[in-house]
Amino acid sequence: MSKQQLEVLGRDGADGCCPGLLTAPLDEDRAETLAKVFKALGDPVRLRLLSLIASRAGGEVCVCDLTPAFDLSQPTISHHLKLLKQAGLIDSERRGTWVYYRLLPETTDQLAAILTRPGALLPESAGAAS
Amino acid sequence: MSKQQLEVLGRDGADGCCPGLLTAPLDEDRAETLAKVFKALGDPVRLRLLSLIASRAGGEVCVCDLTPAFDLSQPTISHHLKLLKQAGLIDSERRGTWVYYRLLPETTDQLAAILTRPGALLPESAGAAS
What we know:
2 copies of one chain form a homodimer. By secondary structure, chain A is mainly alpha-helical. Chain A has a single domain, classed as Winged helix-like DNA-binding domain superfamily/Winged helix DNA-binding domain (Arc Repressor Mutant, subunit A), CATH 1.10.10. The first copy, chain A, contains 7 helices and 3 strands; from the N terminus they run H-H-H-E-H-H-E-E-H-H. Chain A has a 3-stranded antiparallel beta sheet with strand order 1-3-2. In chain A, a hairpin with a 2-residue loop joins strand 2 and strand 3. The radius of gyration of chain A is 16 Å and the shape is elongated. The interface between A and B is large, with 56 and 56 residues. Chains A, B: GO terms for molecular function: DNA binding; DNA-binding transcription factor activity.
């Protein structure tokens, strides 16, 4: 499921270009697909999990290192991780006892591209907004 | 409320730089703030409304031009527009009979920056992902 969503999300982005949210009206199918990914990001625990995974040196995090950062049960954390994975934002691999998670940067790159205005270079765009 | 959220969202971005989601673990407060904005985007009708508003030549759209694009009641459309406005993604102005909506590009710029990997230039990043 995550692979499928990722392909749909990335269908316009093979050349790195970004006909996105801000340049033309979204069609219904694409809006449905994109909304699922944004919905996965629309929760503070999932955002914190994603940032912990994405910012980890080495690129992956053992679930055993994620759970202690939250005052939540292991099943709750696992549920949030599953939603991030279904949205194509992270991937996982079981090795021995533990599951290891890593960012799928293709998806966050696509979201960033979709949210970028045509001609706007982000590091220089502050102050240029109307 | 939208103004307040916008300020919090933009607090790291005054110089256009982007210590974001992918570079360091988010703290709880910032995760709460960001999650509200992503949650506003986590609905296909709201994404379509936002793209209709953002892509309109001239920069603003009358609510009277938005409603016919959807098979939904005016109150439902107004509710979705209210949520986008509360998230700091759009602003509105009443002139005469109608309300006109426009994108707040500062917010989408910030989201794009937050989702951009350090050193990743979006137009060149395709294929460079691990």
